[in-house]
Design a protein that fits this description.
- The chain is built from two helices and two strands.
- By secondary structure, the protein is α+β, with helices and mostly antiparallel strands.
- A two-stranded antiparallel ribbon has the order 1-2.
- β1 and β2 form a beta hairpin.
- α1 packs antiparallel against α2.
Length: 52
């Protein structure tokens, strides 16, 4: 999320799926997806550490 401030300073456009969008929405969507993927992995890892 530290890149969000930089994304607001510069106006970068990206073409995603045939749509033109700014950098901030792309960053927010990617961070959301990564969080959803990483949280279950972390949960399983720490759960195994407590059991063993």
């Amino acid at each position: 999320m530290l890149q969000a401030g930089e994304a607001l300073n510069y106006f970068n456009l990206y073409s995603v799926g045939g749509r033109i969008t700014g950098e901030l929405p792309v960053i927010l969507i990617l961070y959301t997806i990564l969080t959803i993927v990483i949280l279950p992995v972390q949960y399983q890892t720490y759960r195994r550490m407590q059991i063993g």
